[in-house]
């Protein structure tokens, strides 16, 4: 699936029965690392089962989220990579590269 906007991701995940929390950012801030760490903390503290982070390359979000103890953020580009990453840990954030 391809999405043009953050709202597109939320709509599809909601239709699939997932609870979605929006931690903000695009295009509201240039401090994306703050949002990556907020999501990672929520996952590490068991407030959410998984986090999905979006940024242009995915690298910065991965680095920021991985600074949170107990989190393993993986930059994924396809379903197979996401499944492999998910099978290695339970406290996971997925990072997707996305641009306008």
Tell me what the structure shows.
The protein has 100 residues and is of the alpha/beta class. It has a domain at 29-97: Sugar-phosphate isomerase, RpiB/LacA/LacB (Ribose 5-phosphate Isomerase B, Chain: A), CATH 3.40.1400. The chain contains four helices and three strands, in the order H-H-E-H-E-H-E. A three-stranded parallel beta sheet has the order 1-3-2, sandwiched between helices. Helix 2 crosses helix 3 (59-66). The longest helix is centred in the middle third of the chain and has 13 residues, at 32-44. The two termini are 16 Å apart.
Task: Please render the helix and strand layout as text.
Elements: H1 6-15, H2 32-44, E1 50-55, H3 59-66, E2 72-75, H4 79-87, E3 92-97
Helix pairs in contact: 2-3
Task: Please name the defining characteristics of this protein.
single chain, 100 residues, alpha/beta, Ribose 5-phosphate Isomerase B, Chain: A, three-stranded parallel β-sheet, 3 strands, 40% helix, 16% strand
